[in-house]
DNA sequence: AGCACGCCGACT
DNA sequence: GTCGGCGTGCTC
C-alpha cells in the first residue's frame, strides 16, 4: 500500500531515471496513488498543491500529499499543476496522514470530508501535439501542433495521446464567472425584431373616397402613421371596413417602420444589467416568461463576467486592551467564565501572535459558537495588522473560494471557522485554537468519522505549533494541560428531585392541569408550572429542553404489546403526531399509522412518551394564550418574534443551544435531565456537566433561572454547578475516576465496526476479527466484545462491534495493523468513538 | 466513491 | 431468451 510521506525517503533501490514520484490524494475513499512529476518539472515538491492527474480515462483533481518511494505497478505523469502555492496546508496533510495511518481511514476520505473548497476548480485547458509528433494514428480530429481548447476533444482520446507522451497541455485557473443580463443595443437587435408594418396616408389615391373614408384618411394624414389597422380605425372613429377601403383605393400604404421597443427592454437598458432573469422581470413588472422570450428573440444578452468578490463578514470592534497572561506551552487551555471574558483573554494572545506577522487559526464546532467567536475575536486582526476571515460550509461556494484566496495570498492571517477551515493555507501558523473541544459537533457524522480536535492535535504536533483548547468547560482529556480557569458566572439553579417527591404536593391553582407520573408531575412539575405561569404573566421568555424530538412515543398494541418496527433497522418506529406518521429515528423511514396490529389484529393503539411535541401540547394547556414554539430537527418554528423580544415558550431539543439565546430569557427548564445520563457512554456525565455549564452561560448577559428536573438531584456534575465550583472541578474529578476505570485519556479506545448484509456473515466476521486480534497477542482486557449492536440492523446492514482498549497509541496502532487484510464482512475502525462503549 | 465485470433469479 | 439485482475488484 502506498503511504504518504512528508520527506522523500532514502531510496533503497536506485532508480535508473531520476523520476520524482508524488503521492497524490484524490477526494475519494482510497489511499494516495503515485504519479510521476510532469515532464520537465524541476521545482520543489508541491506539497498541498492541487494537481490534475489521469484518472479512469479522464482528469481528476488531487492534492499532493508527499513524495513517494515509487513502487506503483503503473506510473502515469501528473497532467498539470494548478496552483502556485499550497491550496491545503501541509501541516493539515501531515495530521491527516498520521490519523489515516492509525485509523485506516483512507486519506482521500478525510480530504473529501474536510476540504471545503476548490476540489472542482474551473480552468482553461489548452492542448497541442508535441513537436514533430504525428497523431494521425489516433484518428480524425486530433490536436495539431497549434494550441487548441482541450474541451474540444473527448477525454479518452486525449488520455490515449497523453499516455503515449505525445500531448503537451497547459492548465490555467479561470476566475469564477457569473451570468448577468444586459440589453442589446438597438442596432444589434435582429433586424426583423426592429421593424414592423406601419400605415401612412398618401396625398393622392386611385379612386374617390366616401365621407367616412375621407374622415379616416384625414385622421391618418394628421396623426399617422399607425402601426395597426384596428388602431387607425378605433382612433379615427370609423369601422374596420372603412380603413380597409381607404387602403384599397390607394389613399394609404403599408411600409416597414421602426417598431416600438418592448417596455421590458427599455427597463433593462435603463438599469444597465440584472443578475437574474427574475430580478429583471420584477423590475419591469412582467412575467419571467416575457423576459425569457425577449432573450430568445435577442433583445437581451446573457453575459459571463468575473464574479464580483462576495461580501465578507464585518469584523467586530477591537476588544479592550487586555494583558496576555495565557500559558506559553505547546498545549494549553482556557475555560470557564462567560464567553465575553474568555474571548477577551484569548484575543489578547491572538493579537500578540498576529503582530509578529504570523497566522492564527480558530476552529468552532457549530454555527452559534462560530458566530460568537467571530464577535469576540475578529477585532484582534486589525490590531495585529491584518484581516480576519470567517470560513465555514455555510458560506456560498464563491465566498469560500474568495476567502481561501485571501488566506493563501497572506492578506488574511486570522482564520475563524468550522472544521473545514483546518486545511486553510495560512503561511505561518503561530497558534491553533480549538473551541469547545469536547463538543460532539466535531464528530463527522458520516464518511471518515473524524473527530476534528483529534486531527487538529495531530496537525499541531506535526507542525510543532502551540494548540489551545478554549471553552465553557474543558474536556476531561484537557485537564492535565496547563491553563487558566475563569470563575463560574453566578447562576440560579433549582432542582426538582423526582426521586424524593415532597409528601404533601401543593395543588392549588394547578389542580386543573392533569399531571402524570405521581405527585411531582411529569413532564411539568409543580415548580416548573408555577415558574412558567410567572414567565407568562410577566411577558418574559422560557425554554424547555425536551429529551427527544417529535412526539417520540412508541405505539403499542394494548392487547398483545406489539410495537411496529422499522423495516430496515429493527428498532421501534416513533410516533409523530402532527404528520400522523411513524418514523424511524435511525434511518428516516416513515409510514402511516397502521389501522390494526399486524400481529393480533387489534384496532387500538396506545401511545406515550416524552418529546417536544407532547411537552409543547402540555405547555399550551397550561398557558392558554401564550405562544408556544417548537425547535428540533423535525420542526423548527420561526423564532423571530422571540428574538424581537416577544413573550413565549420554546420547547426544544439540545439543537436550540446552537442558536443565539432568546433576548428576554427568564427560565430554562430541563424536563428530564437523566436523559443525558442514561446513555451507556463513559462520557455521559462529562457531557451533562458541559450542558449545564452551557445553559448557565448561554445568555451573554443575563442569568436566567435554571430548573433541572431529575431523578438524580445529587449527581456530582449537577452539584458541581449548583455549588459554584469552577469549570475545571468536575472534569478533574472525572479525570481521576477514569484513571481508576482505565478510560481515555488514560487509555486509547478504538471501535471496530463489522457489517454485512446477512447476520451470519456479520457475526462470523466479528469473531474472525476478534480471533485475529487474539492471535496477534491482544489480551482479553484489550478486546471488549465482539457484540451485536444494540440496534440489530441499521439501513439493512447487520452491525457488530468490538472495542479495543489499549494503554497507548503505539499499542493501538500495533493491534489495528492486524486489520490490514481483507475480510468476509466490511470492517471499519473509529479511533475516536463517541457513541458509547456499549459492550 | 464510481464503475465494470460476473453471477444468479424473474419476467418482457 | 434478456433484464437487473448486488458482490467483488480496481482505479496510479
Structure, explained:
The two termini are 33 Å apart. The strands form 8 sheets. A 7-stranded parallel sheet has the order 17-18-16-19-20-15-21, with helices on both faces. Strands 5-2-1-4-3-6 form a 6-stranded mixed sheet, with helices on both faces. Helix 1 crosses helix 15 (452-463), helix 5 crosses helix 6 (229-236) and helix 8 crosses helix 9 (277-284). The chain is globular, with a radius of gyration of 35 Å. By secondary structure, it is an alpha/beta fold. Strand 25 (574-576) and strand 26 (581-583) form a beta hairpin. Helix content is 28%, strand content 23%.
Q: Could you outline the blueprint of secondary structure elements for this entry?
A:
Blueprint: E1 21-25, E2 33-36, E3 50-55, E4 58-67, E5 76-77, E6 80-81, H1 90-103, H2 107-114, E7 123-129, E8 148-149, H3 155-163, E9 167-173, E10 177-183, H4 191-194, E11 195-201, H5 211-223, H6 229-236, H7 240-248, E12 252-258, H8 263-271, E13 273-274, H9 277-284, H10 288-296, E14 300-306, E15 331-336, H11 339-355, E16 359-363, H12 367-377, H13 380-383, E17 387-391, H14 397-408, E18 412-417, E19 429-435, H15 452-463, E20 467-471, E21 483-486, E22 493-497, H16 526-537, E23 541-545, E24 553-556, E25 574-576, E26 581-583, E27 590-592, E28 606-608, H17 612-622, E29 628-631, H18 640-643, E30 648-652, E31 665-670, H19 684-696, E32 705-710, H20 716-722, H21 729-741, E33 748-756, H22 759-775, E34 783-788, E35 798-806, H23 809-817, E36 826-830
Parallel strand pairs: 2-5, 15-20, 15-21, 16-18, 16-19, 17-18, 19-20, 22-32, 23-30, 23-31, 29-30, 31-32
Antiparallel strand pairs: 1-2, 1-4, 3-4, 3-6, 7-8, 7-9, 10-13, 10-14, 11-12, 24-25, 24-28, 25-26, 26-27, 33-35, 33-36, 34-35
Helix pairs in contact: 1-15, 5-6, 5-7, 6-7, 8-9, 9-10, 11-12, 19-20
This protein binds a DNA duplex (12 and 12 nucleotides) through strand 2, strand 3 and helix 2.
